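step: validate -> pass
step: tokenize input -> pass
step: predict -> running
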Amino acid sequence: MLCCAYASAANLVIYGASGNIGSKIVTEALNRGHNVIGVSRKPESLTVKHANFKAVKGDVTDLNSVLETIAGADAVIMSIRGNGADNSAEETVDNKASLIYIDAFKKLGAKTPRLLQTGNQATLFRNGVQGLNSGKYQEGSAFYGRVKAHQLVLDNYAATPGLKWTVLSPSGTIAPGTRTGKYRVGGDEVLVDASGKESGISQEDFAVAFIDEVEKPKAIGKRIAIGY
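step: predict -> pass
step: emit ->
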């Protein structure tokens, strides 16, 4: 039996299951005994071989598809990204997906599975300045659009009372590394070490934080920073 919020395995739907971070979340969830539905427009790209894994075709920006896919899930995880038309933050997959999930919540109400989504370090603050406004990102660029989309996502969820959501933002660099099972949790501020350097996090430990939050919810209705 799992020592968590669930008496048995949780049923998880993971969008972006084939991505660098999403695939790590899939692995972490399966290794801890959960059931995973990996969603992709091209499910044949999901080659996970595990008795508790199922690949399905779905579109996170289509309401009917989302409603069909999330039915019966305990939690939904979105680890997605993509440029918007004309580099617009509003047209990114992240922003569109958040709005679609809010539409799903309006239809399902209390039956809506809890949502966890990957955020971006640029939405965190350091010394009172948000990374997005630090001058590091060129407005109008595709990168700026992707980053700003993460702020739109936070705004969208915060404006939706009753929706159970959590956004996890890596604090600093996130890259493939080692699973230590250790990390720190912060709020809207960048996590730093004793020298003041941004702590960063491995993709593997970022995935640990996701499944820990699934099993033992501590940040519903919040954005949290994850770092060392």
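step: describe -> The longest strand covers residues 35-40.
step: cleanup -> pass
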